[in-house]
Amino acid sequence: RLPPGPKPVPILGNLPHLGDKPHRTLANFAKTYGPLFSLKFGSVTTIVISSASVAKEMFQKHDRALANRQVSAAVRANGHDKCSVAWLPVCPKWRTLRKISAINLFSTQRLDASQTLRHEQVSKLMKYVEECCNKGEAIDVGGVAFTTSLNLLSNTFFSFDLASYNCVNSGEFKDLVWRIMEEIGKPNLVDCFPVLRFLSVLSVNRKLMGYGNKLNEVFEGIIEKRLENYCNVNGKDGDVLDTLLRIMNENESDLSLDDIKHLLMDFFTAGTDTTSSTLEWAMTKLLRDPEKLTKAQVELEQVLGKEKKIVGESDISKLPYLQAIVKETLRLHPTTVFLLPRKASNDVELYGYTIPKNAQIFVNVWAISRDPNHWKNPDVFSPERFLEHNIDWKGQDFGFIPFGSGRRICPGDMLAFRMLNLMLGNLLHGFNWKIADGLRPEDLDMNDKFGITVQKAVSQRIVPCPK
Ligand code: HEM
Question: Highest taxon of the source (predicted)?
Fold first, then answer.
């Protein structure tokens, strides 16, 4: 018994119904067809989950059966699906990559060990903003956040900057990542009619292969250079790349050079635009609501004093309102709105219906986060709700799952949370802010654009002012 859903049109199914913002369209469908409904994308059955209670049943009872990924033709370009931790099915190779990442990259111990590198990056961000402040210049907050996120990651992984604030290369990298996200997110005829798979070589993939190859070249160059001088005789790793190369060189290692390249592709695509887009939304929301901005600045001053300029990662636990702003931003603007699409590996009984084997599963995080049955005044930006209730993003509060849940939950969640609080805390503690171009708070454009991650449609320009 399939969940109900809107009537498909012949051949294309519900594809023509999606529009350019499928997360919003599907949230509206849930109002008519309920929190579990089905669609047809060509010949592919797609199941959409839009409430915390159905998500809870999915993750608690059927996580294993619904943990594989629906891999699109775009992801298959460059053979990324064969090595990527994000797109592999649950299999021994995926488990190995997750384990290596959890122990060697994202454990609290490893993140604590690399925090000085991130603090140095934040000092550079503050220096750049100071220069803009002195000149009275506006910054494109999404662009600046992208450069910072990219450098926070590149320093954690390679111990050097991949981008600089005054140079076009980080803009190019941002553009590249967005184009990959957009292509992967787009519904594609080849994916909707698996019999047309052979066409993928001729169509979609050409564009995406170009983007993928460009990104691959960047990482290949970095790895080659490191290998030229690589002699880790004392077994001490300098950074993540050292660690990955050491593991690769260990006897009977499960990690190949190719795996490392794809792992880097995963981390740099999954970790940069998600983080920078969240920061851009957070600043935009605060500029629309100056009282909350001031409240955050007061908290920072009370905890750090007026003089201390740099907020460090160890300060974050003392800043509950700052953390609440980050969480509230992730609630209203989750970047990965459908998680990464899942696929049923067998028939599953969920919420009284049957999810057939091979169905594609979208968990509509955007709809769940704004469900009026779960959240009071769901469209209002109110960080206070996270102070009143102890709600966490770690996949157990099913009304708030911006990082997913279950065995495929985002492995970079802790790093992302540190990066976000660090950037936001410093921008708010270091400067006052006003909206650029003479706009009023109510004029700010709050539209979003859809890809496999969703971003703010119009870049936000804001002006730093002395405190
Ligand atoms: C605000 C920042 C971020 C958000 C909102 C976010 C969100 C997500 C979501 C929703 C998923 C899919 C989870 C699922 O299917 O249940 C995911 C997967 C993933 N994320 Fe993140 N992420 C962020 C930052 C990062 C960072 C910083 C990294 C690493 C540097 C990262 C690496 C990954 C990887 C590798 C996966 C695939 C995991 C798998 O399939 O096993 N993410 N992320």
Answer: Eukaryota
Give the pTM. Answer: 0.93
pLDDT, mean of each 10-residue run, the chain (467 residues)? 95 91 96 97 95 98 97 80 94 94 91 90 94 95 90 87 75 74 70 66 62 82 86 67 89 86 90 93 97 97 86 96 98 96 97 97 97 96 95 94 97 95 97 93 91 87 94
pLDDT given for residue 232 in this prediction: 60
Distance 195 CA to ligand 1 centre (A): 31
Domain architecture of the chain: domains with CATH = 15-459 (1.10.630.10)
- Ligand 1 atom with the shortest distance to the CA of 97: 41
For residue 281, the one-letter residue type is W
Q: How many residues does the chain have?
A: 467
Q: Residue 117 has which token pair?
A: 């590198």
Whose Cα sits closest to atom 27 in ligand 1? Answer: 271
Residue 153: CA atoms inside 13 Å, Cβ hemisphere, count? 26
Cα separations in angstroms, 361 against 1, 41, 78: 16, 12, 24
Q: Which residues line ligand 1 (CB under 6 A)?
A: 85-86, 98, 153, 266-267, 270-271, 274-275, 278, 335-336, 339-340, 402-405, 408-412, 415-416
Phi, psi of 266 (to 5 degrees): -60, -50
Q: How far does the centroid of ligand 1 lie from the alpha carbon of residue 270, in Å?
A: 6
Residue identifier of the C-alpha nearest atom 19 of ligand 1: 410
Q: Measured in angstroms, how far is the CA atom of residue 137 from the centroid of ligand 1?
A: 34
Instruction: Tell how far the Cα of 307 is from the centroid of ligand 1, in angstroms.
Output: 36
Torsional class of 428: left (φ above 0), alpha (ψ -120 to 50), beta (otherwise) = alpha
Q: Which residues contact 444 (CB under 8 A, 6 or more apart)?
A: 284, 287, 288, 435, 460
Is the predicted ipTM greater than 0.85, yes or no?
yes
Q: What is the pLDDT of residue 231?
A: 67
341 secondary structure, DSSP code: P
Predicted local confidence at residue 444, as pLDDT: 92
pLDDT at 114: 87
The pLDDT assigned to 195 comes to 65
Nearest-atom index, ligand 1, CA of 334: 5
Closest Cα to atom 25, ligand 1: which residue?
271
Q: What would the two tokens of residue 28 be?
A: 């509206």
167 is in an annotated binding site: no
**Atom in ligand 1 nearest the alpha carbon of residue 88:** 40
Give me ligand 1 centre to Cα 339, in Å: 9
Nearest C-alpha neighbor of 401 from the set 367, 369, 448, 362: 369
